[in-house]
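This protein record is not my work; I was only asked to verify it. Take the sequence as given and treat only the tokens as open to question. I have pasted the whole thing underneath without changing anything:
***
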Amino acid sequence: MARSLRILVINPNSSVSMTDGLKPILCDLERPRLELRYFTGPAGLSPPSINDSTTSILSAAYCFQELKDAIVSESSESPNGFLVACFSDHPLVGMLREHTSKPVIGIFEASVMHAVAFGQPFAIVTTGRYWEQALPAGVNRVFGSANMGGIFVGVESTGMTAEELHATSQDVVSDRIASATSRAVAKGARTIVLGCAGMSGMEAAVRAGCSSDEIRVVDPVRSGVAVLEGLIKAQTGDKQ
């Protein structure tokens, strides 16, 4: 009997509520041959929200210390792949890749690949203004072009941290996301990437900022699971 594929979904910040918020969004992707496990950054060490370069580096360092045994484990129950659920060019992705031959991907990479595959101009709607510069820089580093040949039209932010997305009135959050989406669509975007793991499941707020039902919305965490499952199957030769 074929074994299940096991993906470890890593939330590198220390907000358990954010990790718990991902579970109902991803539960329909689980099935007898795909198991999702979850990891949250260590409490009191990892920052509660990743808002800039400093918090990115700190979260990567503390998470790596907690994960290093799982990374190198060859146990039959160890994860087959690792998904870093932070929407950024997060250093933990490269750190894990240095220590395992198993597939590792971040939700940032996975969702941008999905957006490009649709073949229409895309934008990222994200949280704080720091990311308006940091995410294009990440696109340039990972994909070799700051605008992906003109298909990437930029980043619009809500001005809120990832932590505030869940601590603020949902009416306020939805209005901020809708406004950012409206600005992105005005720049020509026809695909919107949700630029934060904490935005997963907030497609309705994006739709509220669109005047057309033809706008596609990419959920980065769901994209990450789909891409990582494909990478694991390609590596293991699993055809199921």
The radius of gyration is 17 Å. The chain has two domains: 5-107+221-236, 108-219. The chain has a mean pLDDT of 91.
